[in-house]
């Protein structure tokens, strides 16, 4: 089985909510093939609008949604991409390997309903100063635990890009999905699980930023709060 993540862009005339409903109620039902085993949709919409301060946009325009598909083979994607052309302004596909160091067991999603909280989606590029092995060793070997210890995440998925699947896909070496509780949408204190404790919040934020700087170039990162829907 292989996992594909498609980054999707809406038209300028569409709102995030309109785009979400088109993808959720029109695109996803058309992907009802037997060889597509799981579908997860994340969209930047009004439900996560208060988290706008978390957005980082170095690739413009940044993607408005991501569609994750688990299927028997990425070779059989022609019909999928025809659907994407119909329901999105633009799409970029990436074949990824998924690691899930923190499965979402605290707030199990209901099928085709909005998952609790928000899913912070991050597009990363490997810094030129690091080899691939060095980059993975820092990210997976030590940063992963820092992220779990300093933030209020209840779900954490790391998708390393094996290769781009579509022409002109923006450069991307990894796509991160982090589930945060609802309170984190509205404030950094909840984001760092430090409500009522400014000193702890400051400490955790510094630890997180210092750790990120070891393997991330902040001028080559896109960070987008999204609402998550597990379709299948």
What features would you describe in this structure?
The radius of gyration is 17 Å and the shape is globular. The chain has 6 helices and 8 strands; from the N terminus they run E-H-E-E-H-E-E-H-E-E-H-H-H-E. Helix 1 (16-30) runs antiparallel to helix 2 and helix 3 packs antiparallel against helix 6 (198-212). It has helices at residues 16-30, 78-87, 132-150, 182-186, 188-191, 198-212; strands spanning 2-9, 36-43, 65-71, 90-102, 118-124, 155-164, 174-180, 221-230. Helices cover 29% and strands 30% of the residues. It has an 8-stranded antiparallel beta barrel. The mean pLDDT is 96. It starts with a strand and ends with a strand. It is an alpha+beta fold.
What would the keywords be for this entry?
232 residues, alpha+beta, eight-stranded antiparallel beta barrel, 8 strands
- Name the helix and strand elements from N-terminus to C-terminus, one letter apiece: EHEEHEEHEEHHHE
**Number of beta strands:** 8
Rg estimate, integer Å: 17 Å
Order of strands across the main sheet: 1-3-2-8-5-7-6-4
Question: What's a quick, concise take on this entry?
Answer:
With 232 residues, this protein is of the alpha+beta class.
